[in-house]
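Mods, move this if it's the wrong board.
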Amino acid sequence: MPTELTNRIRIVTFAFFIMVVAHASATASQLILTWDDNSTNETGFSVERSTGATGVFEEVGGTGPDVTTYVDVAVADATTYCYRVRAFNATEYSDYSNTACATTPQVFGLAVAKIGAGSGTVISTPDGIICGSSCSGTFPSGTSVILNATPANGSTFTGWSGENCAGTGPCTVTITSATALTAAFDMAPVSLTVSNAGTGSGAVSSTPAGISCGTACSASYPYGATVSLTAVAQAGSIFSGWNGSCAGAGSCSVALTSAAAVTATFTQELASSTLSVSVSGKGTVTSVPGGINCASTCSAIYAAGTSVTLTATPGSRFAFQEWGGACSGTGTCTVSMSARETVTATFKKAH
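Not the wrong board. Structure tokens:
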């Protein structure tokens, strides 16, 4: 004789013995069926399902002995399913349990698109979205989804648009329909630092505005901006040139694709002095550097510290006799200009 189930599942009310719980993850809906085990010698349980309360029941799965939960993932959104369970062993089935029904939630898509020259990631809570460019996920209707945007190095998050989200903080969206959002990432501002060097003094200004300083300063500009710098020496100084992202003493324009630094060198302007030359007799005196070229009396102004070399050239039937004043003898006359200087050149008739 076949062994009968000693404690068959009785048909009982939904509230006590069979329960279907609707559940939805970020990617798909599912229904979770649970029941009470009133048998003692089953080898498993058979789960049957119908679509709607009037649909035809068909077996959709089963469990082993003493397992009283079944997860049905082969379900559609916003659809009502009804379930019944019965125990079985090697020879027979028990009676069916009561019938329990549940409806899967409606699931909608949430799409996030990234715009701008920068880059970054968007991550959702609950899970479902994690992307750096454009992505989407699905969430049950009524789900409150929090989106957080994180810029990559060298980028900045400039804000949300769409579905009542704005600003740069977290974006919270309650899903009630298909939803689309935009996250904007731009390149982060780039810094330009200017410092002054040298014994002189002056100021540096920029176009567009931002830099205006006499010692050191910095400003931030949009990525890719071209900044032109202008150096103006103060009285008693001269601008000697640029170093760093610019060179030479001409114009300085910096295209900012990364942090840049420029040094402006100002040199103290040296005082000038006068060198006067008097010629006695017939002859000419010239100078290196130029300025002096005369056969009688002349003068020139030289910056302090300049070394001026004078050459005496006698006229016809004359010979150079000697230097006087700041030079002496008949050799080369070299004068280092640190103050006003006077030199005489004497030419005599040749015998």
